[in-house]
Write a structure and sequence with these properties.
Largest sheet: 2 strands, antiparallel
Number of helices: 23
Strand order of the largest sheet: 1-5
Number of strands: 6
Low-confidence stretches: 17-35
Order of helices and strands: HHHHEHHEEHHHEHHHEHHHHEHHHHHHH
Structural class: mainly alpha
Oligomer: single chain
Distance between the termini: 32 Å
């Protein structure tokens, strides 16, 4: 029965891809990824469209990125139909997934490039603050893209509107080092007292320059720690610069869209998927990895365990038809699910983010506290507290945002953290908690898993599990889309060769932490 449903779902995907609305969309992407109406081709509308394009895409692309592709690798979501959705089975993603993610981000980069050229010194709409805001947003877009594929076009990215349709690729190292330069330039250019910044077109901070300064510096710390295992000295330098400049200081500083009711459209991608793509959304359930961790049913690498039931459990996870909170284990075969039809009704879905007007969080104050906790653990200067204090503060900030009661924890998390004697055990706790606060940003959670090894994902084995083409190992990257390999073959193939191939197990440049055997 499950296999039959999987074939139906796959057919629905194909209908979407070849149907009029989807085919027209693909045609638009192929012909001109930067196309906008003439009246919108000025900095404000272009900037707003770049943000909404990358955060919301369309319902189908959002399903693929947030839930179907990166969701299982982040262990936020698990699919009941492994033959229809490849990511949870460790197989190559279908072209509609690889092309959809690639093309949507290129559209957003092309739009923000137009903003930069128009607001640069001497541009028709010259404005230092608007230029700096666009520069920060481009850094955000490009770090997302390179963290999926590795080497990608960067210096020549998003310029098809200018006739550059076969851009040369840059290495991930080149990209990352320039991202820091771009953030540094933006931080210097942002001036609070200078008027004329985007207001209504800035759907993140509504023209609040101080908000953009904190976001840029916090993003810089995220990128710096990304490099701690590949270039620790450079990572420390850039992290300490970010810490000295200043980070987000409360949930009011969160980088997130203004709420959907203010924008007049949907705010929550999970709501969009549940409401508008019901058949697809119901193909997934909350991952048992996440649900059981929140319940306190988890063992850390050192044999320790969470202190009890996390207060965020009942805020994040919805009850099933039996009034229970049940996650579905990732990676089972279709045959296994055929033997367990009860999972259709007994698997839980998500509650908090399944709200029509819930805004998309781009980066949060609670994430910043966990980044700072890791920096403190490494002995970086400029941190605002001890690793334990920052760790506990990160949990409290998350609970405050979600409306959960931190006082319901059975023990003092700061004291428990301080009782640990091994720095790796402390890092493990920090990253597990960051995993919770990143939800539902599956992309960033999967990226952190690759960087640190947490959450621990053991190599799969046994007849009940899909081993895929990786033989049970969680993927390290996504292959380039066939469309890119066909249309920009010389440059794309050079990038494949530079990275040692183009498969799921090729590690990215910054992915250099040594993990223990069997621990993926």
């Amino acid at each position: 029965m499950k296999n039959m449903k999987a074939h139906i779902i796959t057919s629905l995907i194909l209908v979407c891809l070849i149907g009029s609305s989807c085919s027209e969309r693909l045609e638009e992407i192929n012909l001109d990824p930067n196309r906008v109406e003439a009246e919108e081709a000025i900095p404000g509308p272009l900037f707003a469209k770049s943000i909404t394009q990358s955060l919301h895409k369309n319902n189908f692309s959002q399903l693929l990125e947030l839930i179907a592709d990166f969701g299982p690798m982040a262990h936020y979501f698990a699919t009941l139909y492994p033959t229809a959705f490849a990511a949870d089975s460790y197989y190559d993603l279908e072209e509609w997934s690889r092309f959809g993610y690639w093309s949507i981000y290129w559209q957003s980069v092309g739009l923000v490039n137009d903003v930069l050229s128009q607001t640069d010194p001497g541009g028709e709409y010259e404005n230092g603050n608007n230029n700096a805001m666009a520069r920060i947003w481009k850094v955000y877009l490009m770090h997302k893209l390179t963290d999926v594929y590795g080497d990608v076009p960067y210096e020549e990215a998003g310029q098809s509107g200018d006739g550059l349709i076969n851009p040369v690729y840059n290495t991930q190292e080149e990209i990352y080092r320039d991202l820091f330069d771009e953030l540094d330039k933006a931080l210097l250019d942002l001036e609070i007292e200078v008027p004329g910044a985007f207001t209504t077109q800035d759907i993140i901070y509504s023209g609040d320059i101080e908000g953009w300064r904190k976001f840029a510096s916090s993003l810089k710390l995220r990128l710096a720690l990304r490099l701690r295992y590949v270039d620790p000295d450079f990572a420390r330098t850039k992290a300490e610069e970010a810490l000295e400049f200043g980070l987000m200081t409360s949930n009011a500083d969160n980088a997130q869209e203004i709420s959907g009711d203010q924008r007049g459209n949907f705010g929550s991608p999970i709501y969009q998927i549940t409401t508008n793509l019901f058949a697809f959304g119901q193909s997934f359930k909350a991952s048992a990895s996440l649900v059981e961790y929140l319940k306190g049913n988890h063992m850390y690498r050192d044999g320790g365990a969470p202190s009890g039931v996390d207060p965020r459990l009942t805020v994040l996870i919805d009850e099933n038809v039996n009034g229970e909170l049940v996650g579905i284990e990732n990676g089972h075969t279709a045959e296994y699910y055929d033997l367990h039809p009860e999972f259709d009704s007994e698997g839980s879905w998500f509650l908090f983010h399944n709200n029509q007007y819930e805004p998309v969080t781009i980066m949060s104050y609670s994430e910043c506290l966990f980044l700072e906790a890791e920096a403190a653990l490494l002995g970086y200067t400029g941190v605002s507290g001890s690793p334990a204090v920052l760790y506990k503060s990160g949990m409290e900030a998350s609970m405050e945002y979600l409306g959960a009661d931190p006082g319901s924890f059975p023990v003092d998390e700061e004291a428990l953290f301080n009782s640990l004697t091994d720095d790796e055990a402390k890092l493990e706790r920090i990253i597990y908690q960051k995993w919770i606060v990143l939800f539902p940003d599956s992309h960033e959670a999967w990226t952190e898993q690759r960087r640190t090894g947490y959450p621990i994902v053991l190599k799969r084995s046994g007849d009940d599990y899909e081993l895929g083409i990786t033989q049970g190992t969680i993927p390290n990257r996504i292959p380039y889309p066939d469309w890119e390999l066909n249309t920009n073959s010389t440059n794309a193939n050079a990038a494949r060769e530079n990275q040692g191939g183009d498969d799921l197990l090729n590690k990215l440049w910054w992915d250099r932490k040594t993990l223990q055997d069997g621990w993926e």
